[in-house]
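Re: export button greyed out
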Amino acid sequence: MVIHHPKTPLEAVMLKKEKEDALYLAGGTEDLRLNGPMGENTELIDINGLVPSTIEKGEDGKLKIGALVTLQELVESDLVPEYLKSACRFCASFEKRNAATIGGNVGARRDDSYLIAALAAAGVSFMSITPHGEELKKVSEYANSDCKRLIEYFIIDPATKGYVHRFGITANTHAAVIAAKVGDSYALSVKGSALVCGDTPDIYKKVEYKDTLEGSAEYKKYLASTVFTLKEAK
Ligand SMILES: Cc1cc2nc3c(=O)[nH]c(=O)nc-3n(C[C@H](O)[C@H](O)[C@H](O)COP(=O)(O)OP(=O)(O)OC[C@H]3O[C@@H](n4cnc5c(N)ncnc54)[C@H](O)[C@@H]3O)c2cc1C
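Workaround output, generated via the alternate export path:
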């Protein structure tokens, strides 16, 4: 296995651009898992030490959460809003939460991502390094793209309130649907489909449902069509 140890974030991004198949290595829980994304020739680009690993509150009251902050550090922080902590708890194993990073979870762009629906509903953006310099990007736009930028830190309003629901057969099987409402915005991660976001609960109509091992298209559509209205009827 080839692991590169670039000296700067820009060097990491240029390596990723140059090597079509390469992956950034943060916590490694996705990259190195059994039947994970690594092919026979995949090279790893170690980003540990290159992007922030701290949670800081700026003068504007916003949180700057480093891409290398782990899901467990988010759960334990007094600064992080509750909706994001509850999304981190979808990762049921303490051991995995302790290694998996927020940048790695978003960077993996999984359709059952623990965090993407929550961050997208919250309208969260992150600062990233691209070959052309630093650039802000919305999580909701990034999730459905395949761009190779390196996530540096997320900018999060700690005052925002919301909720996140996950539907899966068990805590350790892949989710069929993850639904988030934060502030006045909604987002749905549906297994087998692209992320959808919007300002009304009927965003479920925008999803292209597919039959997967986690459930039939009909089943997932039923969950997505009822989750927000049932929650708000309480
Ligand atoms: C048994 C098992 C079950 C799992 N189930 C789920 C699940 O249901 N839902 C889920 O979301 N995850 C799941 N995962 C995957 C994983 O644990 C998480 O997605 C985790 O948050 C990835 O974080 P990491 O730091 O370990 O990322 P890594 O494994 O280091 O990297 C993952 C990906 O993110 C990219 N990346 C990493 N850091 C950055 C960055 N700063 N900027 C841009 N790209 C970056 C890498 O290129 C790579 O493609 C599972 C893992 C295991 C082992």
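The chain has a mean pLDDT of 95. The button fix ships in the next patch.
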